[in-house]
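Job type: complex structure
Entries:
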Amino acid sequence: MMLTAAEVDAVRLSLSIALRSVLFSLPLAILVAWLLTRRQLRGGLLLDAFVHLPLVLPPVVVGYLLLLLFGMRGPIGGWLYAHFGIQLVFTSAGAALATAVMSFPLMVRAIRISLEGVDAGLEDAARTLGAGAWDRFFTVTLPLMLPGILAGAVTAFSAGLGEFGAVITFVSNIPGETRTLPLALYTALQTPGGDAVAARLAAVSFSLGLIGLIAAEFIARRVRRMLGR
Amino acid sequence: MFSIRAKKRRDGFVLDVDIEVSAPGVVALFGRSGCGKTTLVNIIAGLLPADEAHIVIDGWALDKDGKSLLAEHRGIGYVFQDARLFPHLDVMGNLRYGEKRAKARSVQNNENLRINPRRDAPRITLDVVAPLLGLEPLLSRRVHQLSGGERQRVALGRALLTRPRLLILDEPLASLDAARREEVLPYLEKLRDELAIPMIYVSHQFEEVLRLATHVVLMDKGKVLSQGSLDELSLHPELRAIVGPEAVGAVVHGLVESVDGGTGLANIRVGANVLRIHLREARAGAHIRAQLLARDIILATTRPDNLSVRNIMTGTIARIVPDDEDTELVYVDIGGASILSRVTRAASVALDLRAGLQVWALVKSVSIRGHAFVEGPARQQPAI
């Protein structure tokens, strides 16, 4: 099975966008998971609901909201362009943002579950051994959360490969810039005689998803063994 | 050595304590579960904020200008009931964790003089701690490969390597079975005898207190009932409700005068009397402590003869208090020490026991065995 240059482009773009979205959202997801687990926040419930919104909203709505906020005339998008020359609409960076927002709840959930499994008593023990707040986070909490962080990252990456609605709404369908794998597949289906292309892309999607899920489980097992559980 | 004043109110529970300890050694915080012992030590360690706390260790206050020091800056070692070893590090990694940070802290503190480092602090290094706690064979092991007793020894070593000003042990043996407890206890005795680190030992097991404590704080319902030496505390009337009637008995201190090589019986001076006890580790000159259970002490109003009992002490009755419906507790002054005897009310009436009466107190050597321990640096390895 040979892919055309345009198809390879779409696969490469999907991988790159999914990776960037994970790198961008991972620190934030760890922070949010930590806030929700370890702090008794007054607005905790609201934050929790807000983080999970992309799971229940139609992706098109998320894309539309991103357009409002990060569009060239949106409050954040306009500011970013005026001060840093950063444009998100119609760019792969914007696609990464849309993907990050959509997969954020998945990531937070996985990290949160692993953080809940980390005995806070170990953090107390680290305190009595002289470790300050950042020190004990990086030397005790974070290593013990690692299985969840990796699982969350891999799941978010795999899901990010296939993000469609939010991406096409926010950054449109530009070949070589925002036409990711699912967008290319959709385009092929709209084109007369594109069935073979669609089938090939579907097969690639299928394989990538499978590889991602197997990799997630494999890593989780390795790390669990490393942590002695 | 240290003084602790702390107040905390939480969900209807009020902790209000004032503790003063002037001699180094092991302070046992003793009381029923739920009496506030762990709350108190968590306040001392800085893990739990108090409503009001003033703690001074070795002339060094843990609060400054109304602000209390963070736990990580207190230099207080803590051994938790559940060890709390870091599962992602091996034994060596756990031991080094606190040691590294303690070194960084002492350098930093010398610079800004926020904390006055102890000049006489003993040089506690891995080379000292590992053999002391028998950790050498464990160093490269993973935490999940350790037994419960080994975990507690590693936790002890980890806390010691921070060179703490004070070491808190919160029921370190509570989660171990009897055999594992016996495996850890000798190490705790060694720590007490060989390192000059003041310790607070939380326990609700009188046996552990008997073996380890040099000073006892008796707590109940968030208050300090009494504090002092183990001898004094063992006579405290509230103790019965905490340890149960069977464990009531005076603790006495004694000096080993000689050991009979043939019978293995040690002659131990207690007050004006000499007790004969089987105590393998005892050598002449050693100090021992023993608990004489009230139920094991027999009283006679005339000097008894022709008995197998090895220990006959003379004394006078100091007072008699009711014990339960049928029994009384008799306090007998044996000259420089007090012992307790439980007698039935019927016997008390028949013998006409009363304060001031001269009595002979009898106890079998085998009754004391298992309740007597050698203490202090004079303790010896058992002769083979």
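Summary: Residues 110-121, 378-384 of chain B have pLDDT under 50 and may be disordered. Chain B touches chain A at residues 45-47, 70-78, 80, 82, 84, 86-88, 97-98, 101-102, 104-105, 142-145, 158-159, 162 (CB under 8 Å).
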